[in-house]
């Protein structure tokens, strides 16, 4: 059975009769070149690619146009049909994080949390040994909020996961106003983000990108480092400014531009850095948030009114997220809005 072909259901495309044994090995044939992928490989480096050279990993040769050979195992092509979402959440997740996904659906990822505002929630996954495939398909049929492609769900492939999301937005939801890419271990103050920060009554911005900005970071050249990047992959002494992958916000028009840049840019596994490189390639300037405390790539010490006035905080687990959320809902009406955006 070829993973390239998915059985189509109402509002969700999945491999209905998917055999979980296929996750042990499958073939993918880009340009009629078959490459075996073994999921028991621990390196996380084996992907169904025609060659690493063609993927641009030699530093000199750029990726050929449309060389993104991955295909959807689970898709939601009709998620935005006949509606114009104000905000799309792209949430990086893994198969083993079901409890986190459930907590997000009940809290900040609730698609009807802001009255009169259309929100779309999507969890982005690759394939992994931890994922119970049939269980994931059932979850997808129940909630219609999962997209998954046939790349390995590893740290080195986080960039692929985000690019899958960028391409999904530009293909299936181009009429949305804004997109927020974030992670499953995050707290997001959705009401603040929409009502006070973005303000649906205002015209949607274009070429807009913001978040927790990181500047003047240098590539790690120590081969023992988790973040090691050799000079032939990235020869420059500093990375361009980028936003932490824990949570960045952008206007929907940038999704297609970022994906287009990805297809012509040497692949880098550091997802947030890579997005920054794509933005620079397209001449997009990252916008500084109006308040420094809004976006955070660390866990902010909780008090209800502190969380009422920020947008993101890192380091959540399911129980903590539910606890923080319920405490915030009980006391938020007594908090003073610290922000005044122009």
From TrEMBL:
Question: What EC number(s) are associated with this protein in UniProt?
Answer: 2.4.1.-
| Location in the cell | Golgi apparatus membrane
Q: Which keywords belong to this entry?
A: Glycoprotein, Glycosyltransferase, Golgi apparatus, Lipid metabolism, Membrane, Signal-anchor, Transferase, Transmembrane, Transmembrane helix
An example of a GO molecular function for this protein is: N-acetyl-beta-D-glucosaminide beta-(1,3)-galactosyltransferase activity
Domain of life, source organism: Eukaryota
Biological process annotations from GO: lipid metabolic process; protein O-linked glycosylation
Q: Does the keyword Coiled coil apply?
A: no
Give one Pfam hit by family name: B3GALT2_N
Q: Which GO terms describe its cellular component?
A: Golgi membrane
Membrane topology classification: Single-pass type II membrane protein
In this chain the Beta-1,3-galactosyltransferase 2 N-terminal domain maps to: 54-88
Biological or metabolic pathway of the protein: Protein modification; protein glycosylation
Q: What class of enzyme is it?
A: transferase
Q: Which InterPro entries match?
A: B3GT2_N, Glyco_trans_31, Nucleotide-diphossugar_trans
Q: Which family does it belong to?
A: Belongs to the glycosyltransferase 31 family.
Listed name of the protein: Hexosyltransferase
| Upper classification of the organism | Eukaryota, Metazoa, Chordata, Craniata, Vertebrata
In the UniProt record, the gene name given for this protein reads LOC115472504
């Amino acid at each position: 059975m070829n993973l390239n072909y998915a059985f189509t259901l109402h509002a969700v495309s999945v491999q209905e009769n998917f055999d979980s044994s296929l996750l042990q090995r499958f073939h993918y044939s880009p340009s009629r070149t078959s490459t075996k992928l073994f999921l028991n490989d621990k390196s996380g480096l084996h992907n169904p690619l025609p060659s690493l050279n063609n993927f641009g990993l030699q530093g000199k040769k750029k990726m050929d146009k449309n060389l993104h050979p991955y295909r959807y195992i689970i898709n939601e092509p009709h998620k935005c049909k006949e509606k114009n979402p104000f905000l799309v959440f792209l949430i990086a997740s893994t198969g083993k994080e079901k409890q986190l996904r459930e907590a997000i659906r009940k809290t900040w990822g609730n698609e009807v949390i802001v009255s009169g505002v259309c929100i779309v929630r999507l969890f982005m996954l690759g394939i992994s040994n931890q994922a119970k495939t049939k269980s994931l398909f059932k979850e997808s049929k129940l909630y219609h909020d999962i997209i998954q492609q046939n790349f390995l769900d590893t740290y080195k492939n986080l960039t692929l996961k985000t690019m899958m999301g960028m391409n999904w937005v530009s293909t299936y939801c181009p009429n949305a106003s804004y997109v927020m890419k974030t992670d499953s271990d995050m707290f997001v103050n959705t009401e603040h983000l929409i009502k006070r920060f973005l303000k649906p009554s205002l015209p949607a911005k274009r070429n807009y990108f913001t978040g927790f900005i990181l500047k003047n970071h240098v590539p790690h050249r120590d081969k023992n480092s988790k973040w090691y990047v050799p000079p032939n992959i990235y020869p420059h002494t500093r990375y361009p400014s980028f936003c932490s992958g824990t949570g960045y916000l952008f206007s929907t028009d940038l999704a297609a531009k970022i994906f287009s840049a990805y297809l012509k840019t040497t692949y880098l596994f550091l997802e947030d850095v890579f997005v920054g490189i794509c933005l620079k390639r397209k001449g997009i300037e990252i916008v500084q948030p109006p308040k420094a405390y809004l976006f955070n790539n660390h866990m902010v010490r909780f008090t209800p009114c502190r969380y009422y006035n920020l947008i993101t905080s890192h380091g959540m687990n399911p129980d903590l997220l539910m606890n923080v959320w319920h405490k915030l809902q009980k006391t938020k009406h007594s908090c003073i809005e610290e922000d005044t955006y122009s």
